Amino acid sequence: MAKTTLHTLLEMKQTGEKFTCLTSYDATQAHMVSSQGTDIILVGDSLGMVVQGRDSTVPVTMDDMVYHTRCVARGNTDAMIMADIPFMACATIEQTYTNATALMQAGAEVIKLEGGRWLCDTVKGLSERGVPTCLHLGLTPQSVSMLGGYKVQGRDEESANRMIEDAIMLANAGANIILLECVPTPLAREITRAVSVPVIGIGAGPDTDGQVLVVYDMLGMTHGRKPRFVKDFMAEAGTPAEAVAQFVADVKSGAFPAPEHGFSK
User: Fold this and answer.
1) Which residue is catalytic, options 181, 190, 236, 260?
2) CA gap 211, 230 in Å, rounded
3) pLDDT tens digits, residue range 75-133?
4) Residue 181 catalytic?
5) Where is the signal peptide (predicted)?
């Protein structure tokens, strides 16, 4: 398998081939995920919840993110590594430059930021300095207190239009990837068509260019209530590696996500 790059993702968007993304937090996970054909590994601040057992991603620190990114980089084969800048670690442009440097030097190839148009200047500055970015819109877990919980975003016309505008503005500022979480399928489809950069979805329907899941969720290891957008790929697999391979195959074929994994409005 050839190494996944930003150019790879752009070609896939243009040809209509779906790409895949799974989280990983250590070398063993990274090797399993990447060796089964996953295109992108996300070292997500979701580790705060699934690894550290916290109630949200807010307590995750830059030291946590750098440590786990280093671990993932050691186990990765051909996937592109994307890493989160955690809560309030991109409050200023200068702070973001420092933290992006730390993640890139730890092995990340793309930096993921949560937020809308207010990040345009930051994205432009990072792009000018050779740092690729993914911008996370919709349900942004770092802002869950402001959002009033883990709720679908963009259901009314005003917020939907604002999200479309944010995506376009961020792409124009130099964002390389847009990630949409928990947005209605029609809105995700519109945003995917409106921007020239690849769009990854989670709980955003089948029309985005790629799909991402938390690896523990797709292996059936979720504690408590399972999110609607999750499918347990271990249910019909013999090993975790087989489950990852099935996830990749189902995204590529369009079998996942099915209608029951998304939100119509």
Assistant:
1) 181
2) 11
3) 999 999 999 999 999 999 999 999 999 999 999 999 999 999 999 999 999 999 999 99
4) yes
5) none
Q: Is residue 15 part of a domain?
A: yes
**How many domains would you assign to the chain?**
1
Q: How many CB atoms lie within 10 A of CB 229?
A: 22
65-78 burial code (b ≥16 CB/10 A, e <16):
bbbbbbbbbebbbe
Q: What is the Cα–Cα distance from 101 to 42, expressed in whole angstroms?
A: 17
Whether 55 has a binding-site annotation, put simply, is no
Structural domain that includes position 204 = 6-261
Which CATH number belongs to the domain containing residue 160 in this structure? 3.20.20.60
Q: Could you read off the pLDDT of 176-230 as tens digits, one per residue?
A: 999 999 999 999 999 999 999 999 999 999 999 999 999 999 999 987 778 889 9
